Amino acid sequence: MCDTQAPRSCKWFALSHYHRTVHVPDGFIDAPTSVATGVVAAAAVAVSLRGARRELDERTAPLAGLVAAFIFAVQMLNFPVAAGTSGHLLGGALAAILVGPCTGVLVISVVLLMQGILFADGGLTALGVNITCMGIVTVLVAYGLFRGLVKILPRTRRSVTAASFVAALVSVPASALVFTALYAVGGTTDVSIGKVATAMVGVHILIGVGEAAITALTVGAVIAVRPDLVYGARDLRQRLRLRVNGELVDAPAAEPAVPVAARSPRRIWAVGLVTSLVLAGFVSFYASADPDGLEKVAADKGIDEKVEEHAAADSPLADYGVKDVENARLSGGLAGVIGVGVTVVAGTGVFWAVRRRRTAEGADASDASPASTSV
Amino acid sequence: MGTGHAHKLYRHGHSPVHALPPHTKLAAVFAFVIVVVSTPREAMWAFGLYAVLLAVVACVARVPAGFLLKRLLIEVPFVAFAVLMPFVAEGERVEVLGMSLSLSGLWGAWNVLAKGTLGVAASVLLASTTELRALLLGLQRLKLPPLLVQIASFMIRYGDVITDEMRRMRIARESRGFDARGLRHWGVLGKSAGALFIRSYERGERVHLAMVSRGYAGSMPVIDEVTASRAQWSYALALPFAALVVCLLGWSL
Amino acid sequence: MVAVTDAVTDVTPSPSLEVAGLAFAYPDGHQALFGVDFSVARGERVALLGPNGAGKTTLVLHLNGILTGGTGTVKVAGLPVGRQHMAEIRRRVGIVFQDPDDQLFMPTVREDVAFGPAAAGLKGPELEERVDRALVQVGMAEFKDRPPHHLSFGQRRRVAVATVLAMEPEILVLDEPSSNLDPASRRELADILRSLDVTVLMVTHDLPYALELCPRSLVLSEGVIAADGKTGELLSDEELMRAHRLELPFGFDPRSVVGEGA
């Protein structure tokens, strides 16, 4: 999955490269954080399962499977970034735009689960971390941005492609940021947070460009041939007119239009997000109270003070350094909140903006969409 | 939703491990990995014992060591990362062969390597003794939500379709002298991705229509009931239980 | 389910299939059907003829509710195709698709044939009995435990027919049943279809096969039924055939054949 052509001394390349290609393995993030992210991931999957019932109909169910297989496959298609490294798609943006945000989260979760079971790519106990970073964050950020942009831009297919580009571009560094936050909370090795953040975000902006290109081109290609397969472009569809015996007759709408489908999942999303935020914050706040293995060794060997001074002094984000238990708890909880917070800010912020716009257009939107699903 | 033929990770066989119901194996692997991950990394001998446990399973399953080791190569990129850790990490330094290495980095590298390798090995054993379709049935029986199982089933089916299409398209690309290198080629790769998507979808869509026409409504009908006896459960769970004992010893010693 | 039983036990049986005013356009704007009307009585064998692109496959996908959303109605044995009866409709309408590889997706012939009835809730010995009977009907009983992709093309098509027969459908819909078959397999399939006691709608542009098997034919052209009559008479009407791009094989004269359709 990964071709390390020149790892050499580029420490941060190696780090991000590693995260990018092989997902987070077992033992990389400590147990409390793994559990906390596991809870967040499970909550998000549960919420998505509810929401997905509205997004998927009989004909689009296999589409979700295809998107999963596609992401699985395209993750093997490395594209060159710079300096001898190559990255691959995260796929969250693509999934959200093609099959909808709830199904998108499910798709990424399934990909990660199957990679874990079949290819041992990404640890089973790190599933929560992987789903949170690569599924939830990318899908929320990307879909939020996408909807916002589609609302603002003219209603054309080209706008959909452009919006996909931007959404995918931003979703990748956002994912990297959340990973960094999780690493700050629960990393089992004390590489300084500054290094991790620089490495992750820096490289991921580059990778984001590649992700954006592939996402936009895929969405563009699909929308040109089978616009019915692009969830994010559902309200672009023209109303059907049927010619019956030479006369033009208005066809009844075959699909529920977006406002109907989107309203209540959005509320569920908000609830889910707040719950995740609270859970992640609290769980990591208390979880960090237990010294992890490293601190235990350090304490056993009586070298803790030296180590910790060193760590704290060296890092530009020294606040995250572990000075004592109290501080660790606080910073742990803080970072947990930051992790989900990025999601909340980027995701729900845009949701609200979109929703406000939509209430303004509510009148014509609602009469344009008689809801009758007939499959 | 069988693809008609076994997947490449699967090794056909009739060992006792092959014969176990898939959901017991899945549960055992999950439990095992959780136990391994929660073992303190200082208890190096514990990881040795875990490896021995897995070796015993591999023996019983008649999975040859060579096969297992080859499949373990998947973790090479992350071994490379682990090797870098002692150089990158902060903390007290130790001198090894004239290099200044971080102690915490060494511990971190060991931690990731040991736990990661054991996790990979467990998954490899699971995949090589269980057919894909059985794995899906197992997940279904472990009460994974049907929608997720459905997506996974379609994913696996489409996997074959996509890899076929991908190979054909890559051959077509390369036979025209294209080699992806640098920024300028992203466009070509992206366009192939789009075409790949449509081609794969339309191939799989027909199969899905045939399934729907025969009453498929989201979950695979149960044709042969798979049940696990108490003996089979205890057989499968012997692995995580043995590991748990090791783990508890690791914490108390 | 009450409505279902009523429809089945009705004293004067409704036709197996009734299509009225059916029109449909795909989401990309391409319109395939422009108001299709016809009905097929119980026990009839009818051929649906038409050139490529006439809307045959689109029409077939309406018969069991895979495509909906246009105007018009489809009724199967009196039961309207619609959301509330979908499971029952799918059980009653058995579609054999053109490519058997699309239809056979399970690891063994047995599991493939069992798929439909099992989805309808059958299990145990009852399920096994259905599978055996369907396989006997198509003469494939001894291949029960073989993987479908190890069979010849003709055998796969027969298994595909069995997968549908196992659901005991009201009407059997075959999409191009004779395509890619060698003459012997073609003959065997024709014998099997003749031996079955179900209503058959055969979508094809294999005109001799239609003449051989179906007394009555419909011509679908440009999204409407352009002709409906005895197969022999339709095939002999040169002007009609030319107008709808239907061509008989070289040297084939429908008037010289004494088939069921003549």
List the keywords.
heterotrimer; A: 375 residues; mainly alpha; Arp2/3 complex 21 kDa subunit ARPC3; two-stranded antiparallel sheet; two-stranded antiparallel ribbon; 4 strands; 69% helix; globular; disordered N terminus; disordered C terminus; B: 253 residues; 2 domains; 10 helices; 2 strands; 70% helix; flat
Describe the structure.
The complex is a heterotrimer of chains A (375), B (253) and C (262). Chain A is mostly helical and 375 residues long. Chain A has a single domain, classed as Arp2/3 complex 21 kDa subunit ARPC3 (Orthogonal Bundle), CATH 1.10.1760.20. Helices cover 69% and strands 4% of the residues of chain A. The longest helix of chain A is centred in the C-terminal third of the chain and has 43 residues, at 325-367. With 253 residues, chain B is mainly alpha-helical. Chain B folds into 2 domains: 16-138 and 227-252, no CATH class; 146-213. Chain B is built from 10 helices and 2 strands, in the order αααααββααααα. Chain B has a two-stranded antiparallel ribbon. In chain B, helix 7 (132-141) runs antiparallel to helix 8 and helix 8 crosses helix 9. The model of chain B is unreliable at 1-7 (pLDDT under 50). By secondary structure, chain C is an alpha/beta fold. Chain C has a single domain, classed as 3-Layer(aba) Sandwich (Rossmann fold). In chain C, the strands form 2 sheets. Chain C has a 6-stranded mixed sheet, sandwiched between helices. The chains are: A mainly alpha (375), B mainly alpha (253), C alpha/beta (262). Chains in contact: A-B, A-C, B-C. At the A-C interface, strand 3 of A face strand 1 and strand 2 of C.
